[in-house]
# Entry
Amino acid sequence: MYRKVKGTLLIDAKNLEKAEGGIKKAAALLRQGGLVAFPTETVYGLGASAYSGEGVEKIFRAKGRPPDNPLIVHLDRLDTLQDLAVDIPSHTWLLAARFWPGPLTLVLKKSPRVPLEVTAGLETVALRMPLHPVALALIREAGFPLAAPSANLSGRPSPTRVEHVVEDLAGKVKIILDGGSCLVGLESTVLDITGEKPLLLRPGAVTLEELQEVLGEVEIPPDLSYKDRAAPSPGLKYRHYAPRAPMFLVEGSRDQMAEKMKEICRERRERGEKVGLLVSRENQDLFEGEVVEVLGPRNHPAEMAARLFYALRRLDSLGVDFILAETFEEKGIGLALMNRLRKAASGRVIKGGK
Ligand code: AMP
Ligand code: MG
# Structure
C-alpha cells in the first residue's frame, strides 16, 4: 500500500475503501500546512489549503511556478462556493448543476477569505469541483478547499499517471496519492464569468459547444494559443505542456502530411538526429521503421486527448531530438487537443504539399 521514493510517501489509493487510512494521513498533512499530490479526472494536482497563503507558497516553490500564475481552487460541495466568491452571477448555478463535479473551472470575483497568494494577486478566483472520488474524499477529510495546480514541474507536460508525478516531484513533496491514470488527461476548461459575456480562457473536456448550449453566447479569444499577444488569462502565456525536444505540427491531407513527415525524418536522420512522430492509429502504418507514439483513433479525440501528455513524456524519455505531430479537427474536445498540441509546438506549423 505504501512505498517510499526519495523520501516521498507514495500511497495506493486506486481502491477508495482500502485507501481510507492513506487519505486520512494526507489530510492530516494538509492541515499541518503541507503539500499533497492527488489524482483528479483531468490531471494530477498538487494541493495545499486554499486558506493558507504560506501553504500555497510551498506549491510555487515545489513546482518552480512563476509567481504571477494563479491556482485553481478545488471544492467538494457547492456550499463552499459562497465562502470563496462574491457577486456570484446566477448562471454560475446553472453551470455548476450541469458540469460539476467535472472538468469545468469557473473564474469568479474572489472573497476576502481567499489569500492573494492563491490568485497571484488577482481579485478573481478560479474554482472547480473535481470528479474523482479520491480528490473529493481528500477535500472532505481535510475540511477545507484545496488550491492546486497540476502536479508537474513548471513547463513540463501535466501529469496524467502517477509515474509522471513521481518523476517531477519525488523528494519535493511528502505524500503522493496514486489514483491510477487520469480519465480526461487534459486540464480543465476555464471559463471567466466575471464580465458581461462569458469568456473561454482555456478549452478542455467540457466543450465550447456544451457551454454554448447552456449560456448561448460564449466569447472565444481569437487565438487560443496566445502566441504573440498578451494572454487574457494569467498563466496561459507561459511555455506549457511542452516536451524537451522542439516540436512542429504538420498540416495537410493525409498524403501531404505523411510525405512531409517522412522527408523531414530522412533529412534529420542524415544529420544524426532522432525524430519522434505523434500520430493517430490510422496513420501509424505509414511510418514503419520510425519512432512513433500513437495517440488513438482519429474519430475518438477524447481518447487521443487522454493519451497526449503521456505520449509527450514518452517521446522525451526515448531521447528524441525533434518531434512532428499530426493535426486534428478543432471541434468538441478536438479544440482542447489542438490547443495543447499547438502549445507543445510553441505554435510552429509546417504545411505539407507544395
Ligand atoms: P494549472 O492548474 O496548472 O492548469 O493552472 C491553473 C490555470 O488556471 C492558470 O494557469 C490560469 O490559466 C487559470 N486561472 C487560475 N486562476 C485564474 C484567474 N483568477 N483568472 C483567470 N485564469 C485563472
Ligand atoms: Mg499546470
